[in-house]
Design a protein that fits this description.
This protein has three helices and 14 strands.
Length: about 280
């Protein structure tokens, strides 16, 4: 069944307006609280934000994520992921869903990452996309991939790179619309075991670059506070993290001056916990 082009164009316009620069793909409320700056952060949601970060997050863990974009249920995004990190490397599965029964997008990815020496890691992910419009307008199934790199020259600095959808894949055969391809490049400074400062830039082939700047401070072992800012469009964010035993809970909200708040929550559970103390 094929898409009806005019109807699909309306949905695509609304989607692009609400999710400029593919912003919704940044997963986890921790990242949301830091303005989306996540390409250099190693945590449960590296499975979607930079696959090479999985290998620095030892053990077996899983997580769920929910974002209510601009307080509109029609623009909500849900995600779940599972990561298994062992001696050969780290494997992860991540699934996301956006939209309603009228228009929705589903993405599923399977990745593998590993270290090369003590300072460098890389990861690759195969992605499956499904876009569906109700009332007989049809659906589209597509495949693409993601590539991630991370470099840790010392305990204070981390550089990260991610390329999403490097292969051009058309959404509609009779039009130029295709899966958005973009790259992310970032740098983090770990001032101590309690403070992270992160900055990154994201660019696709059509829009202005998005700049994200974020910070995280862990007051005590069980509580963190986060803040961030991002451009294109300009948004501010605040967040908090709570840690208890093998569980962690992250809360965040981004604010757009015209469209309002976008609250999010994520819960992580470390099935086999091999983490060291401090933040990553």
């Amino acid at each position: 069944m094929n898409f009806h082009l005019p109807v699909f164009s309306v949905f695509l316009f609304a989607y692009t307006f609400c999710f400029a620069e593919g912003d919704y793909k940044v997963l986890g409320a921790r990242a949301a609280g830091m303005g989306g700056a996540s390409v250099t952060i190693s945590d449960q949601w590296s499975a979607g934000n930079n696959q090479s970060g999985n290998v620095w997050n030892p053990g077996i863990s899983c997580g769920i994520f929910y974002e209510n974009r601009f307080m509109a249920s029609e623009l909500s995004c849900q995600a779940l992921c599972l990561t298994l990190n062992g001696k050969p490397g780290a494997f992860s599965i991540v699934c996301t869903h956006f939209g309603t029964s009228v228009y929705n997008e589903t993405k599923a990815g399977c990745s593998y990452s590993r270290k090369f020496g003590r300072q460098f890691s890389s990861g690759v992910q195969l992605d499956y996309y499904r876009i569906q419009i109700a009332d007989g307008y049809g659906s589209k199934n597509m495949f693409n991939c993601e590539l991630g790199l991370m470099f840790r020259p010392d305990r204070h600095w981390t550089a990260g790179f991610q390329c999403v959808n490097p292969v051009p894949v058309k959404i509609i055969s009779s039009a130029d619309e295709q899966l958005p391809s973009y790259i992310r490049l970032g740098l983090s400074y770990f001032y101590s075991d309690a403070l992270i400062l992160s900055a990154e830039i994201e660019k696709d082939f059509l829009n202005k670059p998005t700049i994200r700047i974020g910070a995280e401070y862990r007051f005590v072992k069980t509580l963190s506070a986060r803040a961030g800012i991002s451009t294109a469009p300009l948004q501010f964010s605040l967040g908090a993290g709570i840690f208890y035993n093998r569980f962690s809970l992250d809360l965040a909200s981004e604010y757009h001056q015209y469209l309002g708040f976008s609250p999010s929550i994520s819960v992580q559970y470390h099935i086999r916990d091999e983490r060291k103390t401090g933040i990553h």
